[in-house]
Write a structure and sequence with these properties.
Radius of gyration: 17 Å
Largest sheet: none
Number of helices: 6
Number of domains: 1
Number of strands: 0
Helix content: over 70%
Shape: globular
Oligomer: single chain
Length: 192
């Protein structure tokens, strides 16, 4: 598949993941744990797909980032699936979903910062969007860490990163990834 076609597929999966997890969470909140759990598991499958599809796009630009992003998405998917199991257990254990979710968000936010760095350097998406992603994922990471430490600010701090993923999904569906730059811009000799 061309990088444009891969980008379009990733865009679809980003939006599917967003809708599946949000819809699943809403169903669980409304008392339909089984249906909600299935949607949340669909999110986990989409998240793994994003990592797998992004790997060959990222690899020519940064082998480390390609592996880190794939690993981050796999960890996210696994922890979110574990969180679904916690949701289906008796109430005292259901708090495990909260911590599984936050640690999953730490994994994807960390990998997301690396991902956006490659998007920026290789010019695979518009510069402003890549910078938005860098900032959004960094803020998202801070929110997840603060949630685990007992400060309920994660939802508010997830907004920039969440909106970035929606915007990236829409852009990728519309255009795919841009053709990568022939070579990254060279830093002046004095900057080394």
């Amino acid at each position: 598949m061309s990088s444009r076609a891969v980008g379009r597929s990733i865009g679809v999966l980003l939006l599917v993941a967003f809708v599946a997890y949000g819809g699943g969470n809403a169903l669980v909140g409304a008392g339909s744990s089984a249906a909600g759990g299935l949607l949340m598991l669909l999110n986990s499958a989409a998240v793994v797909g994003i990592g797998v599809l992004a790997f060959p796009v990222l690899r020519p630009h940064s082998e480390l980032t390609a592996h880190a992003y794939l690993t981050g998405r796999a960890v996210e998917a696994a922890l979110l699936a574990v969180g679904v199991v916690f949701l289906l257990l008796p109430e005292p254990v259901a708090a495990g979903n909260h911590y599984s979710y936050q640690v999953a968000m730490m994994a994807v936010a960390t990998a997301g910062v690396l991902f956006c760095r490659v998007l920026l350097r290789a010019r695979l998406v518009p510069r402003a969007l890549a910078v938005w992603g860098l900032v959004g994922y960094a803020v998202f990471l801070a929110g997840a860490v603060l949630e685990v430490l007992g400060h309920p600010v994660g939802v508010a701090l997830s907004v920039p990163g969440g909106l970035f993923e929606i915007a990236l999904g829409v852009l990728l569906i519309a255009k795919g990834f841009a053709a990568p730059s022939a070579s990254p811009p060279k830093a002046p000799a004095y900057a080394a």
